[in-house]
């Protein structure tokens, strides 16, 4: 439980710090989002490399998605994905209705200003 609280606090402080640097004019808002995306990508890549180093190679995309939805998500977030959808053309959508990293932010109104300015791709 303490590890979870520390992780959530660290995550919130990282996001807050990146946005504060944009507000102080150090970097523009679009670069802040890119910086957060790159940090998230690198952390996710490192976690996947660590979790899969002792497993057999995946046969196809479906095996990869099963691993992410069951094993990876359960280990990192202590729950399975709520829903997995695909268009059968290589596009997968993972749905977590109670994603802990966003529930803290969505509970308050202080982030609404940033959300409206964000240019999500």
UniProtKB/TrEMBL annotation:
Family annotation (SUPFAM superfamilies):
Ligand-binding domain in the NO signalling and Golgi transport
Give the location in the cell: Golgi apparatus, cis-Golgi network
Which GO terms of the cellular component aspect does the record hold? cis-Golgi network; trans-Golgi network; TRAPP complex
Judging by the UniProt lineage, the source's domain of life is Eukaryota
Which Gene3D superfamilies does the record match to this protein?
Trafficking protein particle complex subunit 3 (3.30.1380.20)
By its UniProt entry, which InterPro entries does this protein fall under? Answer: NO_sig/Golgi_transp_ligand-bd (IPR024096), TRAPP_component (IPR007194), TRAPPC6/Trs33 (IPR037992)
What GO biological process terms does the UniProt entry carry, in alphabetical order?
Answer: endoplasmic reticulum to Golgi vesicle-mediated transport
What the entry lists under PANTHER family is as follows: TRAFFICKING PROTEIN PARTICLE COMPLEX SUBUNIT 6B (PTHR12817)
Q: Which family does it belong to?
A: Belongs to the TRAPP small subunits family. BET3 subfamily.
Mind telling me what this protein is named? Trafficking protein particle complex subunit 6B
Gene that encodes it: TRAPPC6B
